[in-house]
Amino acid sequence: MISNNFRKLILLISLIAVTTSMMSQKLVTSIDSTSIFIGEEITYKLEIHSDTLAQIKFPESESFVPMEVLKTYDSDTIVSNEKYIVSKKYGLTNFDAASYILPKQKVVFGDTTLFSDSKKIEVKLVEVDTSKQGLYDIKPIFITNKEYDLFRYIPYLILLLIIVFLYIYRNKIFKSKKFQYEKSPYQKAKDEINLISKSGYTAAEGAKEYYSKLSFIIRNFLEIKVFDHSLESTTDELLYELKRIKSSGKLKLTSSTLNNLHQVLQTADLVKFAKYYPDEDIAKKDTEKVKITVDEINNILPEPTIEELKKDYEFHQKLLKQERSKRIKKAIIGFMGLLISTVLIASVLFGFTYVKDSILRNDNLILLETKNWVTTEYGAPGITVKTPEVLTRKLSDPNFKYLNSTNLSEFSFNNSDNLMQIYVSNTRFNDKIKPEDFQKYIDYTLDTIETMGLSNIVVKYENFTTANEAEGIRVYGSADFIDSNSGKIISGKYSILGFFTENEFKQLIIIHEDDIYLNEITDNVISSVELIKKQQK
Q: Rounded to the nearest 5 degrees, what angle is found at the Cα of 18, between the Cα atoms of 15 and 24?
């Protein structure tokens, strides 16, 4: 029988063995923060300290709920003092403001299961102090560069419409019609008589209209070829004049011709004034009499002279020119309507000012729409800036010179009419620059641009941070300066970006007319600024 002392010894040895085994693996948990803003990443780290290596199974992403796993890092193993440290990191966050309990995490090390401690994590809203937030004027809406790349072709589109319009209507506008004589008065009269004969006659309803047409046909023929007051004369007056022409020998009219004419015109007067309705047979006979009368008079008319033919030709040429002028006027009116419609539609879509300046090829708009802006570093190291055209190095007599300093480099750009000037200046001082001297150097720059022709300068200050997080000072405002071309004082703007290092002063200066396109160029240039820092040795 085993004694109690032996049992106690065995139990003690077992406890020591288990404790030693548990102490050989230790799980250490760390987190870099327990209070974050919404969406901010924190790093959660699990470390196993052990005397030996074994297969390890770290927790999966699902076990970190309610936190979200942004990233899972690869596990890492370190050997130190004959001990092994195996670690694994997780990037965690949450997008809702609240207090969360990160549950215990289970790590399997060989046959042993280890648990971490739970963690309380506070997720807060992002705080914004509006009382300290600078307020600025609302900037005007500008068309983006991609849109400009499309809309810059508006003038060419209008030109294309003009070409298409002229091509479609080329025959009507430019093609000359061949000369064609109009029908002779005789032929016209014959055609009209045939037409009225085919139209039919109704005594009660159509007598007045029928005889009016019949009377007009013979009178119009006589008006053109015999007596030029035939249309406005009464029947008696017309016959009297024809008899006088016969007696004078100018025209050999027969008595039968005059009788036929008298009968027809007299019947027409009765129909018109006495409401007389001739029978259909009488109407047919009167029509035939008119036809015979026209034939007889045409046969005795003298042949036209060369002068008359020439006069007739010139008259028809004049008619053709008048007709062509009408066609050209219609084409011009149509084209102007198309042009105005195109401009109006484009103005509604893109703005009248932009369309007008596109058509007239405004120099400032052309500069803004320069296809390939140039990104260059000015200085070594210096300021990197994107401009419509590359800045030119000034080799001597720089504009921006300061006491106890050396002008390392200065670059400039002026557009065609000097209404936009861009400068980049790099200056090194002999001594370190003190923060209390920043204002002094900025004021000196303002004095310099004033000597360049600026007046009535309004000064505003604000802190400025570049795209690559370099901090500087921006000085800007309105000013007046003299137009070198006209000599007139015009309204303008200026911007100065100043960057101070230990003993260097780098600055970008832009002076320009107050113009919508130059304003946008300035905004684009300033937004592109980056400060190149010296590489640490």
A: 135
pLDDT digits (tens, 9 = 90+) for 351-395: 777 777 777 778 888 888 888 899 988 987 789 999 999 999 988
| Contact (CB, 8 A) for 319 and 225 | no
3-state secondary structure 295-345: HHHHHHCCCCCHHHHHHHHHHHHHHHHHHHHHHHHHHHHHHHHHHHHHHHH
d(C-alpha 433, C-alpha 425), whole Å:
16
**205-236 per-position pLDDT tens digit:** 788 888 898 989 989 988 888 888 888 889 89
Contact present, 84 and 51 (Cβ < 8 Å): yes
Structure tokens at 208: 């007045």
Tell me the domains of the chain and their CATH numbers: 21-124 (2.60.40.10), 185-300 (1.20.120), 369-531 (3.40.1000.10)
Q: Which two tokens stand for residue 82?
A: 């004959």
Per DSSP, the residues of 355-370 read: HHHHHHT-HHHHHHT-
Amino acid identity, position 350: F
Cα–Cα distance, 61 to 355 (Å, whole number): 57
Contact in structure between 531 and 504 (CB atoms under 8 Å): no
Cβ atoms of residues 414 and 389 within 8 Å: no
CB-CB neighbours of 114 under 10 Å: 17
**Residues shown for the chain:** 537
State which H helix or E strand residue 89 sits in.
strand 83-93
269, 253 contact by CB (below 8 A): no
Distance CA 208, CA 274 (A): 10
pTM of the model: 0.43
Pairwise CA distance, residues 128 & 453, whole Å: 43
**Is the separation of the CB atoms in 36 and 86 below 8 Å?**
no
